[in-house]
Amino acid sequence: MKEEIILKLQVECVMFFHNNPYALESIEGLSMRLGREAELLEAILLRLVSLAILERIGNGPRSIYRYIPPITMEDKDLQWKSS
C-alpha cells in the first residue's frame, strides 16, 4: 500500500474517533462508516494502537477500537508547590 494512502487512512480514522470520542467500533463498523475496505483498515488501526492513539479491546475480528484522548495542559495540575 502506498505511503500516501496509508497516511490518508490514518488521518480519516483519527478524525473519526476525535469527532466521536465515545465511539466503540469494530473494523467492520468503521469500514461501513468510512466507506473503506475492512482489509485496508486493519493495518491502519493496529498502527494507531501502537502509537497509543487508539485502544484495542479484545482479539481477532471482533476486536473493538476506541479513542484515547491526548493529555492537554488543561488536564494537568500546574500549581507550583512551595517548600
Automatic annotation (TrEMBL):
This is Transcriptional regulator. It comes from Paenibacillus psychroresistens.
